[in-house]
Amino acid sequence: MTAASASAQRRPAIAGLGLTEVGKVYGRHASEFAAEAVRRAAVDAGLTLTEIDGLLVAPGVTGGVDMGLQTALGLNDLRLLYEMRAYGCTAVAMVQTAAMAVQTGMADVVACVWADAPLQPGIPSSESFRNAGSRPSAGWTGLSVASGFTSANISYALAARRHMERFGTSSEHLGAIAIAQRDWAAMNPLAQYREPLTMESYLSSRWVAEPFRLLDCCVISNGGAAVIVTSVERARDLRQPPLELIGWAQAHPGHAHRRDENFGIISGAARSGPAALRMAGVVIEDIDVVQLYDCYTFTVLISLEDYGFCAKGEGGPFAASGVLGPEGNLKVNTGGGELSGYYLWGMTPLSEGIIQARGQADDRQVDDHDLVLVSGNGGILDHHGTLILSSRIG
Amino acid sequence: MNDLILRPVERDPHTAEFFEGTARNELLIRQCLDCGKSSEPEAAQCPACGSTDVHWHPASGRGKVVSWVISHLRTGDRSALGIIELDEGPWLWAPIAGDHARLRVDASVRVHFHRPAAGSEALPVFQLVEEAGSPG
């Protein structure tokens, strides 16, 4: 990227990534995963903990990942500290906030951390996740829950149904996404589901909320992830190949249960994507690797359309054309994503994006990995965020 | 199967007026006193003009299906849930009663009210309407 003006602003970069053990890892509180993730990110970057002067923390559904993490990590001289919440958009939003803090000089080394521990031994993962959240019996949310809207599965299935009815998107189209990501997951040692998936086994997986089957939904994981953002100049002297943050944006349609003709038809990616590309000075065709937030197969499909990888309404045939998966031309969710890999909310696409951009993905490494697009998606397609990472630093 | 699976709900200061309505079999929505536009029951500000002069107004109770899902529970129960566009314009997320095989976009529905348990407020449920000469 070339700066148009001789700006005094520092260029932000990702210099560290810390991933804990993920999946059915029991007996540890989310705050312990969070602390470990930050320690691992510091080691990864080649920094000592005391060099961290900014800390952004975010909890999942079980909570407990809060500003107290400062004390747990012995960080007594922070210049930036707060808890952030933008649902599935949080990881992207934390990195954006850290990047702006680095640009302005408010902080030099910012750790962004997310962790959760919803899984408990002997409890089905869907139930443990559901029970971890609050279940109000009063108010508008109480009315919604009492009416049967008890999980995001139902709400996203309502969105998917609109797309299917409008454009003819089919179960096989959604299945193609699940299968492609499973093929990628087979090469990711961190992935929770690695055995091959056929269309037949996808179609025979049990209904959760028609039109969604079990294999349209993400896995549930315990674990934590942390990312360290600093300046390009500082990152050059650290242990890892620096990844410059060259573009970012957010878009929040925020239709939440109100009338919105675009619900299930157009997501926030349609605005967040072009804005981030514009900032980066690149076009969508320049992107080498794509890491999309994939709480459901459908989230991938609508994001592919809204980012412009295919035309609106053609996401289904596009996904089923063989373009996805390790043999396809478009490298999407190369670690298996949240569907087959691990579910650390927005840290799932972000962590895989970093691993690919650095060229550290071993068996699943993509040949061209200069420009990586990472998305975040929160609420019921209410919130969207985009990051563009570059390993080609001038 | 077309089970209706509802849980009890209590009123709070924001929903008290709405549940007063359901208790007398009325579906209350909001109507803007400035621009006249109807909006969802939870809208304290008109989505069209931004006015906070939104008063409670009984809806006709008629509408059509925008989207739907069949929720499958581990108990084996199945229930239909959908987005309903009321004749007045607002969208409500609500349970749908009736034969699941007849669910389709724009299917006509009419509101009914169900009390899941003694002590619970009554909830709006939309019943699929049999239409003479409907295209199926």
Name the features.
heterodimer, A: 394 residues, alpha/beta, 10-stranded mixed beta sheet, two-stranded antiparallel ribbon, 35% helix, globular, disordered N terminus, B: 136 residues, mainly beta, 5-stranded mixed β-barrel, 3-stranded antiparallel beta sheet
Describe, in plain words, how this protein is organized in 3D.
In chain A, strand 11 and strand 12 (383-390) form a beta hairpin. Chain A is of the alpha/beta class and 394 residues long. The radius of gyration of chain A is 20 Å and the shape is globular. The model of chain A is unreliable at 1-6 (pLDDT under 50). The N and C termini of chain A lie close together (7 Å). Helices cover 35% and strands 18% of the residues of chain A. With 136 residues, chain B is mainly β. Chain B contains 1 helix and 8 strands. Chain B has one helix spanning 16-23, and strands at 28-32, 38-39, 54-58, 62-72, 78-86, 91-97, 108-114, 123-128. A 5-stranded mixed β-barrel of chain B has the order 4-5-6-8-7. In chain B, strand 1 (28-32) and strand 2 form a beta hairpin. At the A-B interface, helix 5, helix 6 and strand 5 of A face strand 4, strand 5 and strand 6 of B.
Unreliable residue stretches of chain A: 1-6
Order of strands in the sheet with the most strands of chain A? 3-2-4-7-1-8-12-11-9-10
Strand content of chain A: 15-25%
Multimerization status: heterodimer
Spatial order of strands in the largest sheet of chain B: 4-5-6-8-7
- Strands of chain B, count: 8
**Radius of gyration of chain A, in angstroms, nearest whole number:** 20 Å
Instruction: Please state the average pLDDT score of chain B.
Output: 93
Structural class based on helices, strands and sheet pairing of chain B: mainly beta
The major pleated sheet of chain A works out as: 10 strands, mixed
Instruction: Give the topology string of chain B: H per helix, E per strand.
Output: HEEEEEEEE
Question: Greatest interface and its residue counts?
Answer: A-B, 33 and 40 residues
Q: Helix count of chain A, per DSSP?
A: 14
> What kind of sheet is the major sheet of chain B?
5 strands, mixed, barrel
Number of strands of chain A: 12
The SSE string of chain A, one letter per element, is EHEHEHEHHHHHEEEHEHEHHEHHEE
State the shape of chain B. globular
Q: Work out the radius of gyration of chain B.
A: 16 Å
Report, as a whole number of angstroms, the end-to-end distance of chain A.
7 Å
Quick check: average pLDDT of chain A? 95
